[in-house]
């Protein structure tokens, strides 16, 4: 059987369940936030004694801290295949990176309706064109082609993989399309990067945004990587210390490079952890990671397709490549209560809702909410089987899971 590929900080965690017992936690909410790799947690422990002011301190710990941050920048650049003239700007997360980037784009942006809100809302009103996805990716590409031709956009911004369906988009095709119109391509790598290697130079991606907390590092650090010219010409993301060459009472000259957008003391621990997680996955190997998750994803989908009373939400009918994400809706009953019962009675974490992708969800789903199970490097076959068994048992109970079973009552 497939054991977890990597040891995560939550391995063996037990959680309380209704009735007073405890069960080994099954984490199938990895797409929301992945627990840190154990090796990343240990690395952070080693770094903490050197915790000191970054960039401007003169003491040894300060120099170490600065070296760690700049080393992390180099690791990120190497990991994503950045070109020599690309910048790596550290941000809080993908949302922060895309908001920063939105003010740097010198023109209109075309997006698909399949996007997470983080890649829908930051683009300037009036300068954002939303193309509604078609049933196939091929015809969606034609619709994007037509829109890019019509509006002469500066940017096409797409997700690398859907956080609802798990579908992995053909990025190189999207890059060719954008470039054929003289536009650039940005990829929201929040879901894709933690599970697949994304080489931006090889794929033709001009900008990539991602979050550390989905890539097996702690919360609070993310990155925007991409071509320097637009970023150097953009208004500074934050105004403050570190982003300036000099300041007078009435004037300021801003730096170029990553400093321009990183005013204030950065999240050193988050940045160091993020880079360490990426390096760990290089060590584990891209193929081992993809193979592990592929086998579990097949098992998850096969089990859900076979489950009566459940419909798996699919997007494009010509995209077969997907990450370990499956979103279902129920023929009847409350999906929110089903998700809560999985947690409260079976110690299984999933997510219910519309997953911050309301336009996509509303187009593909027939009900108002879905339940998403998502897996990763720490997932085992046993995790998938426990979920499928618990789901079948709750659905067999019929709408009973929607009733208050706990003596004291529980409310999701
Ligand atoms: N894009 C996608 C595809 C996502 O799944 C998410 C997180 N759910 C985000 C962007 C936003 O990431 P963060 O919350 O880390 O900014």
TrEMBL record:
Residues 26-387 form the Aminotransferase class V domain. This is Aminotransferase class V-fold PLP-dependent enzyme. It holds the Pfam family Aminotran_5. The keyword Membrane does not apply. Keywords: Aminotransferase, Pyridoxal phosphate, Transferase. Gene3D superfamilies: Aspartate Aminotransferase, domain 1, Type I PLP-dependent aspartate aminotransferase-like (Major domain). GO terms for molecular function: transaminase activity. Belongs to the class-V pyridoxal-phosphate-dependent aminotransferase family. Csd subfamily. Its cofactor is pyridoxal 5'-phosphate. It catalyses: (sulfur carrier)-H + L-cysteine = (sulfur carrier)-SH + L-alanine. It comes from Agromyces neolithicus.
């Amino acid at each position: 059987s497939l054991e977890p590929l990597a040891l995560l900080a939550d391995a063996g965690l037990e959680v309380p369940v209704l009735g007073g017992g405890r069960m080994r936690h099954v984490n199938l909410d990895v797409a929301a936030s992945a627990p840190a790799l154990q090796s990343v947690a240990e690395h952070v422990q080693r770094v903490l004694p050197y915790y000191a002011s970054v960039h401007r301190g003169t003491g040894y710990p300060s120099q170490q801290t600065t070296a760690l941050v700049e080393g992390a920048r180099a690791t990120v650049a190497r990991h994503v295949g950045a070109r020599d003239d690309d910048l790596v700007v550290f941000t809080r997360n993908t949302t922060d990176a895309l908001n920063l980037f939105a003010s740097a784009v010198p023109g209109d942006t075309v997006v698909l309706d399949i996007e997470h809100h983080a890649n829908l809302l930051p683009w300037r009103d009036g300068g954002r064109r939303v193309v509604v996805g078609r049933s196939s990716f091929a015809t969606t590409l034609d619709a994007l082609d037509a829109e890019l031709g019509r509006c002469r956009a500066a940017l096409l911004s797409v997700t690398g993989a859907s956080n609802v369906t798990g579908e992995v988009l053909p990025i190189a095709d999207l890059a060719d399309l954008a470039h054929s119109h003289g536009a650039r391509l940005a990829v929201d790598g929040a879901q894709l990067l933690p599970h697949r290697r994304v080489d931006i130079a090889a794929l033709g991606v001009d900008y990539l945004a991602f979050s550390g907390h989905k890539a097996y590092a702690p919360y609070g650090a993310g990155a925007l990587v991409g071509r320097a010219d637009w970023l150097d010409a953009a208004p500074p993301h934050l105004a403050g210390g570190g982003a300036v060459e000099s300041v007078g009472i009435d004037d300021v000259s801003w730096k170029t490079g990553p400093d321009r957008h990183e005013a204030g003391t950065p999240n050193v621990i988050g940045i160091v952890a993020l880079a360490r997680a990426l390096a760990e996955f290089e060590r584990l190997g891209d193929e081992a990671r993809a193979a592990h998750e592929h086998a579990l994803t097949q098992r998850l989908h096969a089990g859900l397709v076979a489950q009566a009373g459940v419909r798996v939400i699919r997007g494009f009918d010509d995209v077969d490549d997907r990450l370990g994400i499956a979103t279902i809706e129920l023929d009847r009953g409350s999906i929110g209560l089903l998700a809560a019962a999985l947690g409260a009675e079976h110690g299984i974490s999933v997510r219910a809702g519309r997953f911050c992708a309301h336009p996509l969800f509303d187009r593909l789903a027939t009900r108002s909410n879905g339940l998403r199970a998502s897996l990763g490097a720490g997932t085992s076959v046993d995790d998938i089987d426990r979920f499928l068994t618990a789901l079948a048992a709750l659905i067999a109970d019929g709408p009973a899971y929607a009733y208050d079973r706990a003596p004291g009552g529980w409310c999701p």
